[in-house]
Design brief:
about 170 residues; mainly beta; Immunoglobulin-like; 7-stranded mixed β-sheet; 4-stranded antiparallel β-sheet; elongated
């Protein structure tokens, strides 16, 4: 409903018992407010401008602009390079956030085709890095890494697309 009516997304819970009963081993939904600073005025402005992200367990939900901003600040290429003299590149993806990020390579690269070295989606734990291998058609000075962040939704069943640039 918030997406349909362009409202701020708010993560809440309606717990009337002990929280541990409903959220054993998990944490309840929270709202991240993307404010310029921690003043009441800045938080109020961010809420009215719909700059919020819902976070529960390993799921993030936000409007596209806010989700993209959060992911671009959270998921960065910390290092990259080539293996030997072939056309296989590697990228060290660093997750600077406190949330788990689950990514899938959607191709891209130099001439539109790349494959990720790991089978299936790749899970990047909070405050950690994961090295990805990319098979490319040819070497280049820069490579597009097109990712889908599977646990960062911008609509029901619609994960976020994110493009990172490698300069191996």
């Amino acid at each position: 409903m918030a997406l349909k009516h362009n409202l701020a997304l708010i993560g809440t819970s309606d717990v009337h018992e002990l929280i541990a009963w409903d959220y054993e081993g998990r944490f309840r939904p929270v709202t991240l407010v993307l404010a310029e600073d921690r003043t009441p005025a800045a938080v109020k402005r961010a809420l009215f401008e719909r700059r919020t992200v819902i976070w529960q367990d390993e799921l993030l939900i936000a409007h596209t602009a806010e989700m993209t901003a959060l992911l671009e600040a959270s998921l960065v290429v910390s290092k990259s390079g080539w293996y030997g003299s072939g056309s296989v590149a590697w990228a060290e993806l660093e997750n600077r956030s406190s949330a788990v990020l689950v990514v899938r390579n959607e191709g891209g690269g130099v001439t539109g085709r790349s494959t990720i070295g790991q089978p299936g989606p790749v899970r990047i734990e909070p405050h950690s890095s994961k090295r990805l291998s990319l098979g490319l058609d040819a070497r280049a000075s820069s490579v597009e890494l097109r990712l889908t962040v599977l646990n960062a939704l911008v609509a029901p069943q619609e994960p976020t697309k994110l493009t990172l640039i490698l300069q191996p």
